[in-house]
Amino acid sequence: MAHRWTNDLTYTDVTPKAAYLNRRQILAGTVGLGAIGLAGAASAQGELEPNTLEEITSYNNFYEFGTGKGDPAKNAGALVTSPWSIKVDGLVDNPGEYALADLLDGLTVEDRLYRFRCVEAWSMVIPWNGIELADILNKVGVQSGAKYVAFETVVQPENMIGVQRRVLDFPYVEGLRLDEAMHPLTILATGIYGEPIANQNGAPIRLVVPWKYGFKSIKSIVRITLTDEEPPISWNKANPREYGFYSNVNPNVDHPRWSQASERKIGGGLFADRQDTLMFNGYEKEVASLYEGMDLREFF
Ligand SMILES: Nc1nc2c(c(=O)[nH]1)N[C@H]1C(S)=C(S)[C@@H](COP(=O)(O)O)O[C@H]1N2
Ligand SMILES: [Mo]
User: Fold this and answer.
1) What is the distance, to the nearest Å, from the Cα of residue 179 to the centroid of all Cα atoms in its chain?
2) How does pLDDT run across 198-230, given as a tens digit for each residue?
3) Is ligand 1 within 6 A of the CB of residue 153?
4) Which InterPro entries match (predicted)?
5) What is the mean pLDDT of residues 242-270?
6) Is residue 209 part of a domain?
7) Residue ranges at the known binding site
8) Were both Cys, which of 120, 128, 248, 294 would link to 189 (CB 3.0–4.6 Å)?
9) Is the CB of 118 within 6 Å of ligand 1?
């Protein structure tokens, strides 16, 4: 397919970081991407400067392991990620409990350098390795009545201090409309910088939806359900006034308690200027058509 731009990295490959970054910078500057211009999405917005692996793995939100940004790096070592299986159920042709390797077998792992924008108004740029969610959904066979995809994070109470302390209603759950889930920008990530994804980033597999606030990108997924009803999502359950189902990055719709017009890029230093937040986090050209005719204030 035209939009598959680098097919040479699999999730078992280990690429030295320096070499990886080099190759990445070359790609970001030179590769024009087929039908919908995925790399164009990155390069057209100027050079994307990836965060370091150290930054990406030390400043996290993963409430199962505590609410502090440093807690996941400290505590997620306790997460057991092998063996790992994912239950696929609901409106699918081939439901079942899939071993992770079986679910991903034959599918292409791709490099995606994406902006990542948390609803808390900080951001990073992350070089993911992942599989298009559409490839996985097509593999299990989506039935015609399906309208949404629901996701669930693993619960390992004995290993998860945040679950023991009930800092949120677990399991963490998330959801997408089916067309959002099938969009080629939407991936399930299995790696960062060519290395298996760290536990604190949602090992062994987590969702990445780059035009939405970070909390939509649910970690350590153990269940994927095709459904005809909008599924409940954790942050909306916790505070429906502040967190909507769509949660598209939008500089013009403020959070009730802070502005969303700008963001602080992690690693920019204490006195670095904030940067403007981009509509749909810079992916407007690719995804705006999904929301044509929708009032983005009402459906926030
Ligand atoms: N299961 C689970 N997934 C989660 C979260 C969480 O607390 N639990 N936090 C979300 C939020 S708010 C953000 S910003 C991102 C952070 O991803 P990162 O730590 O890999 O940067 O994960 C999202 N996915
Ligand atoms: Mo977030």
Assistant:
1) 16
2) 999 999 999 999 999 999 999 999 999 999 999
3) yes
4) MsrP (IPR022867), OxRdtase_Mopterin-bd_dom (IPR000572), OxRdtase_Mopterin-bd_sf (IPR036374)
5) 96
6) yes
7) 60, 63-64, 118, 153, 201, 206, 217-219
8) 128
9) yes
